[in-house]
Amino acid sequence: MSGDNRFLGLFYLSPFIIGLLVFTALPFLASLYLSFTNYNLMNEPVFTGLQNYIRLFTNDRTFRKSLWVTLIYVFTTVPLKLVFALFMAVILNYKLKFINVFRTAYYVPSILGGSIAIAVLWRYIFADVGLVNMGLTMLGFEPVNWFGDPTNALFTITLLRLWQFGSAMVIFLAALQSIDKTLYEAASIDGAGKWTSFVYITLPLITPVIFFNLIMQMVQAFQEFNGPYIITQGGPLKSTYLLPIYIYDEAFKRFDMGYASAIAWVLFLIIMALTLIAFWSSRHWVYYAGDKRS
Amino acid sequence: MRTMFMTAALFAATSLSTAFASDLRMSWWGSDDRHVATQQALKVCGTKFGHTIAPEFTGFQGHQEKIATQLAGRTEADIMQVNWPWLPLFTKNGDGFADLNQYKDIIDLTQWSKSDLDSGSVKGKLNGISVSTTGRVFMFNKTTYDKAGIPIPKTWEELIAAAPKMKEKLGKEYFPFEGAALDARLMVILRTTQKTGKDLIDPATNKVAWSEAELAEGLEFYKTLVDKGVIESWKQVAAGGNTPLHENQKWAKGQIAGTYQWDSTYGKIATPMEKGQELVPVKLLTIEGAKTDGVYRKPSMLFSISRNSKDPKGAAQVLNCLLNDPEAVKIMGATRGIPSSKVALDTLTKEGKIKPVQLEAYKRVMEPTSPGVSPLNEHPRVTEVFDTNFEAFAYGQQSSKEAATEIIAGINQALTGI
Fold first, then answer.
1. Which residues of B touch A126 (CB under 8 A)?
2. Is the distance from CB of B126 to CB of B106 less than 8 angstroms?
3. Which residue of B has its CA nearest to A121?
4. Which candidate in A125, A128, A131, A152 is best for mutational testing of the B interface (most B CBs within 10 A)?
5. Burial code of B367-377, b = ≥16 C-beta within 10 A, e = fewer?
6. How far apart are CA B193 and CA B195, in angstroms?
């Protein structure tokens, strides 16, 4: 590479690199430092060692409750969303009339789903006198207390996330379309039915994509904020009080930035640990092209 | 020579005006009418002093977070509208904002009462000047009460007695009153203050002034209101999506016929009511043997000047203009409630800029007695402890005694060192 062009690539990349350093790397490291301090925004941070972490694990019922709710939320939404997205992708992989219209229509909620407007809409749809209860009443069922009952509130929030299955679905769809059709023909000649073909051909061949979606969806689910914050504000009885809401409240409502940073780091480590477990387990169930395993 | 003199004079005049002209910023929260009025008033005040003032306005939601972030980054506006309970958060020692006493030659502080000035002072430093005073008042839907043939209640007992009559006459979906979350908390605080004659927090000790038994009784009173059908249960309110009153269909239809709200919200909650419904502010409900009326009265908001302002004197000129200059005051009207400044109140009264119903609500706030309200009542750690345990009690997960014990211990712990 000539001297003139040596730094050209770096120059083109510099907006991204600068953005990454200033808006991601620096706050990331700053939050680690702040997690060991008492910092209320108005005064300089005061180093307090492990005090925030000790308080978190020994004297904070809200954290324990919030962590439990977050884990339930993640372990419910991620598998359900993956199964549903794959199910829809399989259906939309058939050659049907107007299939592109259907594909677009099913993808739309993913674009809108995370928005404030949809969260507000959700609040009205599932309100005591909302559309869902009106429908249930018309069908002869008792109306359900979706937001007021702690056992239902998390489920209602979960539904909002499931509704945004489009992005995972599109990735599954692309994977399904890349499978060599001759494999299905060969299986069919050998007498395999559709279900057998799906289990023994489709699923193994798309395991890399399942793995990718699993990681992405898990990370996103751990960071869910908009839906529960707008719809239930974490209630009732903190039944939808996910850790990101707790972090936000500690940081911007109670101005305990040090403590909020400590919670954020615990959340980060949990995500990191689960991701590493997923990577470790992937050796046993994810198959790549050229894989020698039988 | 004459030309030289004229040129010199012109140069001097230009230099003089540019020396005092500043680019300032002012931030506030509010609704559309406040945004429009404040921007117009800023233009007037800016022209008077040669300043350019950039407006920064939002709704209340998220404004505290915005101000906190700006203060931390020292990028806050020169003039800020600040919520009174934020003082202990942002200016613990009185150093969070500029001391307005330093600019008393610019700001006419004689227009405020001593108590107004005291309420904006932290450790002797005037960190904010009271824009208006607000308080919680009872407001009832007169139309619904008339339909049910019930007089508007004057005591808590009459309110409780209204529930069965209203339901019998109009249907079980009717409630003579409402209260959950913040409204319920302030209702319990009012009732307990009336009974004990003390505010929640003792300003002398920064600890809860009530005994467990006194607070437990207040919590039990809330339960009585739910059990007797006076208010919807906390669970039922949550079922509606915790919608604010002015967005609540039951309120708009008159099925919820009473509330305990800030007087300044009259317009906001009266507007969505269906046509023909009349909302009236009334005196605080009383209780036999009450030691005080217990009114929850406080500065609704303050105007503060940034300690980092490059031109605090210019900011003080604008602040004084907005609050004391008749021309600006007329433009601002009552968009921030009834003004605390005497000259502003006189101006608006003479001009007929205050609606009679606003004045009525204001009277309901200013007349009753009160032991005083601590800004720490609304400290986020205090409200978190109170609301968490109160909600657990409302959902039947704690007894009133357990909730009271937890609330008092939690608040006392939270306030240690504040």
1. 241
2. no
3. B241
4. A128
5. ebebbebbbbb
6. 5
Q: Which of A126, A236, A253 sits opposite B235 (nearest CB)?
A: A236
- Domain assignment of residue B164, given as a range: 135-296+369-415
| Number of structural domains chain B divides into | 2
Domain assignment present for residue B7? The answer is: no
pLDDT in tens, A112-162: 766 788 888 888 899 988 999 999 999 999 999 999 999 999 999 999 888
Q: Which residues in chain A are contacts of B243 at CB distance < 8 A?
A: 123, 127
Smallest CA–CA distance from B250 into chain A, residue: A129
Structural tokens at position A266: 């615990």
Structure tokens belonging to residue A208: 């890399």
Mutate to test the interface with A, among B87, B92, B395 (most CBs of A within 10 A): B395
CB B332 within 8 A of CB B322: yes
Q: Which of B82, B89, B242 to mutate to test the interface with A (most CBs of A within 10 A)?
A: B242
**A53-285 belongs to CATH 1.10.3720.10:** yes
Q: Is the ipTM of this complex over 0.90?
A: no
For B34, the enclosing helix (H) or strand (E) is helix B32-49
Give B361-405 pLDDT, tens digit per residue: 888 888 888 888 888 999 999 999 999 999 999 999 999 999 999
Three-state DSSP at B357 gives helix
**B168 and B36 within one domain:** no
For residue A147, what pLDDT is reported? 94
What average pLDDT does range B82-96 have in this prediction? 91
Dihedrals φ, ψ of B151, to 5°?
-70, 150
| Beta strands at A37-38 and B23-29: parallel, antiparallel or unpaired | unpaired
The residue among B302, B306, B304 whose CA lies nearest residue B76 is B306
| CATH at residue B268 | 3.40.190.10
- Please provide the size of chain B in residues: 418
Query: Over B205-256, what HEC string results?
Result: CCEECCCHHHHHHHHHHHHHHHHCCCCCCHHHHHHCCCCCHHHCHHHHHCCE
Chain mean pLDDT for chain A: 91
Q: For residue B141, what are the β-bridge partners? A: B279
Identity of the residue numbered B400? S
Q: What are φ and ψ of residue B21, in 5° steps?
A: -80, 135
The minimum CA-CA distance between A17 and chain B, rounded to whole Å, is 24
pLDDT of residue B367: 87
| SS3 (DSSP) at B417 | coil
CB A217 within 8 A of CB A82: yes
Same domain for B379 and B279: yes
CA dihedral B161, B166, B172, B177 (to 10 degrees): -70
